[in-house]
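Duplicate of #3305? Posting structure anyway:
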């Protein structure tokens, strides 16, 4: 079973300590009642992975762990086999002792787009909402974060995160909790809050923005990355049953409309930092994620449209401050 006790100890004497009034009971209830049918199989893979401490660790330029001398071929093959039992791997990539996890998303490209526009992360306590397998948590640590906390209810992502952590020397600077943001109390305790690739999945996007604001300290920074459409400050796409084959897409605003939403929720200094079309360089099928990906979600005769006829995925990064 995954141990959250060390995280509780870590935050006990920090501004996050009020979280301990609710978090342990929530995790205990999740362990008792909500485990995925394959969770035992995934945690068996975790237990069988070797606990390694890398002699060369690079979280600044990627997520890479190496020894001075390569691992024996048998050990490397065993690590790869165990990591493959945790497929599909969607967010990455990871380079772990010669095992290169080529994930569906090149999350490093998103990080390179985001990082130049935000306040330096050195010494900060950070929350990453909907963090997936935690790739960006490790990049936040590489950028000097004091503590990077991710929340994501998808249990496979938790197991992937813990597998990577075990191979990174059991690093305690990053943690992933199997929660949604609606389960969090208003902590007002994080210096930076990231929400990347989440907003369009929320039935009430303004409620999501308020929830993000409730986690920030005064003068804290929100980094919001999401799907947008071209248009003016009143443009919002409300897709039908599916958008790019995804069922749970509710509202896709223009970047200008999203700027208005942030200001309506009380954020200030709102900046549209980046606009970028999603390409098959950034999202594609790989040997580690073998089901459909971006190429299958676009109109085969017109890549500027999704298969449903909507504008192809365009993403924006907005940065804002809580006064």
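Output from current build:
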């Amino acid at each position: 079973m995954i141990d959250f006790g060390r995280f509780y100890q870590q935050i006990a004497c920090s501004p996050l300590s009020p979280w301990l009034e609710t978090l342990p009971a929530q995790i205990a209830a999740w362990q008792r009642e909500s485990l995925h049918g394959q969770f035992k199989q995934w945690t068996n893979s975790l237990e069988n992975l070797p606990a390694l401490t890398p002699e060369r660790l690079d979280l600044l330029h990627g997520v890479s762990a190496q020894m001075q001398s390569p691992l024996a071929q048998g050990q490397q093959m065993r690590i790869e086999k165990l990591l493959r039992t945790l497929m599909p791997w969607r967010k990455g990539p990871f380079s772990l002792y010669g095992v290169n996890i080529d994930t569906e998303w090149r999350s490093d490209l998103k990080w390179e787009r985001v990082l130049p526009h935000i306040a330096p992360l050195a010494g900060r306590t950070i929350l990453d909402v909907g963090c997936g397998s935690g790739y960006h948590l490790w990049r936040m640590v590489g950028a000097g974060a004091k503590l990077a906390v991710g929340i994501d209810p998808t249990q496979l992502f938790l197991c992937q995160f813990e597998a990577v952590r075990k191979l990174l020397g059991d690093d305690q600077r990053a943690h992933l909790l199997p929660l949604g943001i609606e389960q969090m109390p208003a902590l007002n305790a994080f210096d930076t809050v990231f929400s990347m690739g989440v907003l369009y999945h929320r039935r009430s996007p303004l409620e999501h923005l308020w929830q993000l604001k409730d986690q920030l300290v005064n003068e804290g920074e929100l980094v919001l990355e999401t799907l947008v459409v071209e248009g003016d400050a009143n443009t919002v796409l409300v897709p039908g049953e599916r958008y790019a084959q995804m069922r749970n897409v509710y509202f896709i605003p223009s970047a200008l409309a999203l700027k208005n939403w942030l200001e309506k929720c009380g954020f200030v200094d709102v900046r549209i930092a980046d606009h970028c079309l999603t390409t098959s360089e950034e999202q594609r099928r790989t040997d580690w994620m073998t089901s459909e990906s971006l190429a299958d979600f676009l109109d085969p005769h017109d890549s500027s449209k999704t298969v449903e006829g909507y504008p192809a995925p365009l993403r924006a990064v907005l940065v804002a401050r809580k006064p």
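Confirmed duplicate; merging threads. The domain at 36-322 is CATH 3.40.50.150 (Rossmann fold). The chain has ten helices and 17 strands.
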